[in-house]
Design a protein that fits this description.
mainly alpha, Receptor-associated Protein, 16 helices, 81% helix, extended
């Protein structure tokens, strides 16, 4: 029995090596030809992933609906395709369902929890987009300072933007590079800046574009205009940070209150599955769960509207 077990373990290790690395080169005719040709040899897992991504891409193209857009992923700074992200979400959902079933949770409850994975992925993408836009808004003050310094040195406005794009950090560098490239192919500079302001949902950057447009139409010292706009943007950013600091306690309380029912439900499902099964097996229990879910969603929107302050 020990010999058979050792043979099985060695066979499993060998199969795993072939799945990750791939088949070794042969010294026959095919192997000699391969020495003079460029052939990409992908491991089994990568080939399976590519097949799944191409299949999902075909399904999404036929249906004409995508859970994520390419612009949304670009704004989030995620260098992946929509189909690849969908495949990852499906794999995580399946792994979550299998893990919860392995922990002896009811299959229906495990399926409901696994359905939260796509929603969590959507929340993560939107959070990345929001974080990127906030970082962009925080870089506007230093951007105007660099542009004003370049203008005082005698550079033109497009050249000043090009210099600022090389010195700025992400995401300001990518957005300014987009503006400069569109200007070089013939697009109006202000129009390109307004499109970036719409993409990043930045009212401050739209003010910069409007100030440049006003200076272009009426004349004047652009350095002084940019300095005044920079001062206004810095004051707004200071007020925005104060509001964020004062509302931080409310946001943390909202996160805890939203996570508490889910955590307690998962805990009791693992500790006392017979009691939690009453909510799934009986009709009154399903009604209670439905009512709790509705109040949970309404409470989440209510707390979000309280702690989210826009100006």
């Amino acid at each position: 029995m020990l010999v058979i077990g050792a043979v099985l373990v060695l066979a499993a290790v060998f199969c795993g090596y072939l799945a990750v690395v791939g088949m070794p080169e042969t010294r026959g005719t095919r192997g000699r030809v391969a020495e003079y040709s460029v052939v990409e040899r992908k491991p089994l897992f990568r080939r399976m992933n590519d097949t799944a991504v191409s299949t999902v891409e075909g399904v999404l193209s036929r249906r004409g609906w995508r859970p994520f857009t390419s612009d949304e992923l670009e704004l989030a700074g995620m260098r992946t395709s929509v189909a690849a992200l969908v495949v990852l979400v499906i794999a995580l959902g399946g792994a979550t369902f299998s893990g919860l079933v392995a922990l002896q949770l009811p299959a229906l409850l495990a399926f409901v929890v696994s359905l939260l994975v796509p929603g969590a992925a959507k929340v993560v993408v939107r959070a990345k987009v929001t974080r990127r836009r906030k970082r962009f808004a925080g870089q506007l003050g230093s951007l105007l300072q660099m542009m004003a310094s370049s203008l005082r040195a005698g550079q033109s406005l497009p050249s000043a933007m090009d210099s600022a794009s090389r010195d700025a950090d992400s995401p300001m560098a990518e957005e300014l590079t987009r503006v400069v490239n569109e200007y070089r192919i013939g697009r109006d500079l202000v129009d390109a800046m307004e499109q970036v302001a719409e993409r990043m949902q930045s009212e401050d950057f739209r003010w910069i574009a409007q100030a440049i447009e006003a200076q272009r139409a009426t004349g004047g010292n652009l350095n002084e205009i940019l300095d005044q706009v920079a001062e206004t943007i810095r004051e707004r950013q200071h007020i925005r940070e104060q509001v964020s600091a004062l509302s931080a306690e409310g946001r943390i309380s909202a996160y805890i209150l939203m996570a508490l029912p889910v955590g307690i439900g998962v805990y009791y499902s693992m500790v006392a599955p017979d009691r939690m099964g009453l909510f799934i097996d009986s009709g009154i229990g399903k009604l209670i769960l439905l009512g709790c879910g509705v109040m949970y969603v309404l409470g989440g929107f209510w707390m979000r509207s309280i702690v989210r302050i826009e100006f």
